[in-house]
Write a structure and sequence with these properties.
The complex is a heterodimer of chains A (143) and B (145). By secondary structure, chain A is mainly β. Chain A has a single domain, classed as Roll (Thiol Ester Dehydrase, Chain A), CATH 3.10.129. Helix content of chain A is 13%, strand content 33%. Chain A contains 2 helices and 5 strands. A 5-stranded antiparallel β-sheet of chain A has the order 1-3-4-5-2. The two termini of chain A are 29 Å apart. The model of chain A has no long low-confidence stretch (mean pLDDT 91). Chain B has 145 residues and is an alpha+beta fold. Chain B has a single domain, classed as Roll (Thiol Ester Dehydrase, Chain A), CATH 3.10.129.10. In chain B, strands 1, 2, 3, 4, 5 and 6 form a 6-stranded antiparallel β-sheet that branches. In chain B, strand 4 and strand 5 form a beta hairpin. The longest helix of chain B has 16 residues. Classes of the chains: A mainly beta (143), B alpha+beta (145). Chains A and B meet through helix 1, helix 2 and strand 2 of A and helix 2, helix 3 and strand 3 of B.
C-alpha cells in the first residue's frame, strides 16, 4: 500500500491532546527498510560516508522510520504538530533488508505557556531483536 | 597517542552550510515521510499557531538533526569514533532562502571502564548567525581489544 502523504485525510481518526494517555503504547507497524528508502533519505540530508562494514542507513534514519512504522491514525501525523526537540541514542546501524519494529508510547503530557505538549518515547529494533536506537521527543499539539 | 587523547576541550567541529529551498524541504518530506502541512502548505501556514505566526512553510526541525548527525559522523569516522547520542531543541524556524550551518564544540572528555567518551555542545546557525537549534551530543571512542 502506498504511503499516505495527505495528513489531513485521516485527521479525524487521530487522538487529540485530551485523548492521549501517557504510558499507553502507540499502535505500530513492522517495516522492511529498503535501499531505495535509504537513498531517498540520504538525498535529503546529503549523507555520504559509512564507517561500518557493509551498507548502512544514516543514523538519523529514525526520522523516516517514525512515520514508516506508525499507522495513518497515529497522532504524530496530526497537521499542525510542531516538533520542539528530540534526543536519540544510537546503538547499531539499520541496514537494507532489516525488518524494523517500533515500540512507542506517549510518555508525558503537560501545558506550558498555553501550549499543549506531549512527550513521546520510542525504541526501534531489527529482526534480531537488537536495539537500533532509542529516543524521546517533545511535540506541541494543535489540539 | 590515540585519536581520543589528541582531542582537546574547546576543539571545534565545523559542518557544511546547507541552503534551504522549497525543493530541499520537499525532498525531506519524501525522504522522511513527514508530510505535515507545516512543510507543504503556504495557505495553512498563514494561519495562527497560538501566539506564533510563521507566514509560510518552514523546514522540518529534524533536518537540523540530520545535518548535525552527518557533521558528527563525517568527523568521527576517520578518527575511529562512533556517534552515540544527540539531543537538540529548536530555537527558531528555518524558512526557504535561509542557509544553515551546524557546528560543535568539545566540552567534556570522560573515560569509563569500557570506552572513552566525548561530550559536545552542538548548534545550527542561520545566515544571520541566529541559533536555530542547540543541543548536546556524545561520541564513543572504543578501545582496541
Amino acid at each position: 500500500m502506498p504511503f499516505e502523504t495527505d495528513f489531513w485525510k485521516d485527521a479525524a481518526l487521530r487522538k487529540k491532546w485530551d485523548d492521549i494517555i501517557p504510558g499507553e503504547p502507540r499502535k505500530t507497524l513492522p517495516y522492511v527498510l529498503t535501499l531505495e528508502a535509504i537513498h531517498k533519505y540520504c538525498r535529503a540530508v546529503d549523507a555520504k560516508r559509512s564507517p561500518w562494514k557493509g551498507l548502512i542507513a544514516p543514523l538519523s534514519i529514525h526520522i523516516m522510520l517514525m512515520f514508516a512504522c506508525t499507522p495513518v491514525d497515529d497522532w504524530m501525523r496530526s497537521p499542525g504538530t510542531v516538533n520542539a526537540g528530540q534526543s536519540w541514542s544510537y546503538n547499531i546501524p539499520a541496514r537494507p533488508g532489516d525488518a524494523i519494529t517500533l515500540q512507542a508510547r506517549a510518555l508525558d503530557k503537560f501545558i506550558k505557556k498555553e501550549r499543549l505538549f506531549v512527550v513521546h518515547d520510542n525504541v526501534f529494533f531489527n529482526q534480531h531483536a537488537e536495539v537500533i536506537c532509542s529516543g524521546r521527543g517533545w511535540t506541541i499539539r494543535p489540539q | 597517542m590515540t585519536a581520543f587523547a589528541k582531542l582537546a576541550i574547546g576543539q571545534q567541529v565545523q559542518g557544511t552550510p546547507f541552503a534551504v529551498t522549497r525543493e530541499t524541504i520537499r525532498e525531506f518530506c519524501d525522504g522522511s515521510l513527514d508530510y505535515n502541512p507545516l512543510h507543504l502548505d503556504d495557505d495553512y501556514m498563514k494561519s495562527s499557531f497560538g501566539k506564533t505566526q510563521f507566514g509560510g512553510i518552514i523546514m522540518h526541525g529534524m533536518t537540523n538533526f540530520g545535518l548535525i548527525t552527518r557533521m558528527l559522523t563525517d568527523w568521527l569516522y576517520p578518527l575511529g569514533g562512533v556517534h552515540r547520542r544527540l539531543e537538540t531543541r529548536w530555537r527558531a524556524p528555518v524558512k526557504p532562502g535561509d542557509t544553515i550551518t551546524p557546528s560543535a564544540r568539545i566540552v567534556n572528555k570522560r573515560a569509563t571502564d569500557a570506552a572513552d567518551w566525548v561530550v559536545l555542545e552542538v548548534e545550527v546557525r542561520n545566515q544571520r548567525s541566529e541559533a536555530v537549534a542547540t543541543g548536546e551530543a556524545m561520541a564513543e571512542f572504543p578501545r582496541a581489544r
